[in-house]
Amino acid sequence: MRKRRGRSKSLETLISRSGVEEKVGDGNVGKEGKRFFACYLLVSLSPRHKGHTYIGFTVNPRRRIRQHNGEIVSGAWRTKKKRPWEMVLCIYGFPSNVSALQVLAVIQLMEHNVIKRRATTDLIVVFFEKPVANNKV
Fold it and tell me: Locate the GIY-YIG domain: which residues (predicted)?
């Protein structure tokens, strides 16, 4: 059986205003000591998967894009087949991970509804087009 990897030993300990200690990895803390939470949009650069997108959440965008592109092992198996990826949008400034994940859920729901609407529109166009007259000789 494979040995599980633990957290790195270079974790910093922060004490919040309430006095609770909070462990934070490298790249998670901004200039003011606040945590960094972001939603991001990836676009596939592969000619075979042109136009494919992926939406996600991260606390460290540089590390996350490297995971998606396979430079760092672990963490991004869903996007493995459509590599390489480019991060075209990164929304940050959320006060907590909950608010960032809520925005992510809304974006994903909107994307799903747009895809569903396009598919429905295409089906309606196919069903209601005028049939081509048969030219029998």
Answer: 35-118
pLDDT tens, residue by residue, 17-40: 344 444 444 456 555 567 999 999
User: 76 or 44, which is more confident?
Assistant: 44
Domain count, the chain: 1
The model scores a pTM over 0.70: no
- The answer to whether residues 42 and 57 touch, using CB atoms and an 8 Å cutoff, is no
CA nearest to 36, candidates 106, 120, 115, 96 = 96
CATH assignment of the domain containing 31: 3.40.1440
**Residue 35 CA: distances (Å) to CA of 31, 40, 56, 75:** 9, 16, 17, 20
- Mean pLDDT across the chain, nearest whole number? 76
DSSP, res 132: P
How many Cβ atoms from other residues are within 10 Å of residue 53's Cβ? 14
Task: Identify the pLDDT of residue 115.
Answer: 75
Q: From CA 65, how far away is CA 27, in angstroms rounded? A: 14
Note whether residue 11 is domain-resident: no
